[in-house]
Amino acid sequence: MVSGFLYDRLQKEVLNLRRHCEAKESDMNAKDQEIKMLMKKVEALSKAMEVESKKMKREAAARDKEAAAAKMDDNKKNRNINSSKRAMKAS
């Protein structure tokens, strides 16, 4: 009798442990799926940040070129004005 009672009790414990393991495994699978989804989001954000960085660098370079061109135009105007003044003084 005792051995039958212990066998039944052990069998119930084994079933409870299996259910507990299945529940833990399903939780782990759900968390793995969530981690994969978050990793994809991180990759997408990283790519977006990289693209935005490149865009900002291009815009900065374009502004620098425009500023340099404007400065060169100002220098040319100043040279022309100075040479005109010298020509007027010489006359």
Describe this entry's structure for a reader.
By secondary structure, this protein is mostly helical. 98% of the residues lie in helices and 0% in strands. The longest helix has 89 residues, at 2-90. The protein starts with a helix and ends with a helix. The mean pLDDT is 89.
Distance between the termini: 133 Å
Question: Main β-sheet: number of strands, strand sense, barrel status?
Answer: none
The H-and-E topology, N to C, reads as H
Query: Low-confidence parts lasting 5 or more residues at pLDDT below 50?
Result: none
The value of Rg in angstroms is 39 Å
Give the overall shape. Answer: rod-shaped
Q: What percentage of the residues does DSSP assign to strands (E)?
A: under 5%
Treating each run of at least 4 consecutive H or I residues as one helix, how many helices?
A: 1
Could you say which structural class the secondary elements and strand pairing correspond to?
mainly alpha
Mean pLDDT: 89
Helix content: over 70%
Query: Could you tell me the number of beta strands?
Result: 0
GO biological process, one term: cytoskeleton organization
GO molecular function: microtubule binding
GO cellular component, one term: microtubule
Subcellular location: Cytoplasm, Cytoskeleton
Question: What order do the helices and strands come in, and which of them pair?
Answer:
Layout: H1 2-90
Summarize the structure.
The chain is mainly α and 91 residues long. It has one helix and no strands.
